[in-house]
Amino acid sequence: MSVYIHPTAVVDEGAQIGEGTKVWHFSHVEGTAKIGEKCSIGQNAYVGQRTVIGNGCKLQNNVSIYEGVTLGDGVFCGPSCVFTNDLTPRALFPKGHENFVPTPVEDGASIGANATIVCGHRIGRCAMIGAGAVVTTDVPPHALMLGVPAKLRGFVCTCGELLHDQMTCPKCARRFEPDGEGLREVK
Fold it and tell me: At the N or C end, where does the chain have fewer CB atoms within 10 A?
């Protein structure tokens, strides 16, 4: 297994890219970025300085991962979803990277096309952010967040299926229970 980098992609010296990862057309990976194994970095994507992307992540076309964003394992970022890293940006008054606001995205989370994640909010494991949503709060594990601003509209299974009142997945039969901040799977 090896790393595939399309001839039009730019991967700066020092970037760490795991085995089996593919970096597609016109993408740019900065020199201090760390990308795990078996990831797909879609066309025209940007992976910024000091970012960390876990194993098995998929960034669709036009996704930018700016400094301060950390993706856990198995995170899906839909086409053109947006992350921020500064709550009060000013071109004439830059704050420097040490003042960027971190945004952790936990394992298995999915972010829909054109969604915006305002910095400083944790996206819980296996959460699902709907297309076009604007996230302005922390997101609990397995939460389904929809709208502008994004609101909790239900919960989803690890496989992505919508959970109903009984908290058992109709597709794969996994069972869940509240854990104080979201849901956890019952083994």
Answer: C
Token couple for 185: 């799977």
Q: How far is CA 48 from CA 51, 65, 138, in A?
A: 6, 6, 23
Compute the distance between CA of residue 62 and CA of residue 99 in angstroms, rounded to an integer. Answer: 25
Reported as half-sphere exposure (CB side, CA atoms, 13 A), residue 126 has a value of 17
> Is the distance from CB of 55 to CB of 37 less than 8 angstroms?
yes
Alpha carbon distances (Å) from 26 to 56, 117, 172: 21, 23, 38
- At 41 the three-state DSSP class reads strand
pLDDT score, position 121: 98
Structure tokens that stand for 38 in this block: 């078996």
Residues 181, 172: Cα–Cα separation, whole Å: 23
CA distance 135 to 139: 8
- Is the pLDDT score of 1 beyond 80? no
